[in-house]
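Thread: Addiction module component, structure

OP (GT): Posting the sequence first so everyone is looking at the same thing. Length is 74 residues per the record. Can we get the structure tokens written out before standup tomorrow? I want them in the notebook alongside the other entries.
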Amino acid sequence: MSIQYLSNEQGQITAVQLPIEDWEKIKNLYPNVESIDFSLPEWHKEILDARLQAIVKDSSRIAPISELLNELDK
């Protein structure tokens, strides 16, 4: 599969381009792929916004995921 990534001025990947043959294979494997709605419901956005605001107010509770995984392994 020959995938090309498109990025913006900041270098963040904003799109993916792939050959039509690969897209056809994906559509055969996942027939409903074109009808998938990728938008988040408004209530999800509200929860995310609230959590982001909480992080801005108090970032002391933020920790790397590796710390959480280490705690779970104990």
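GT: Both are above now. Quick notes for whoever picks this up: Strands lie at 4-7, 13-17. The mean pLDDT is 91.
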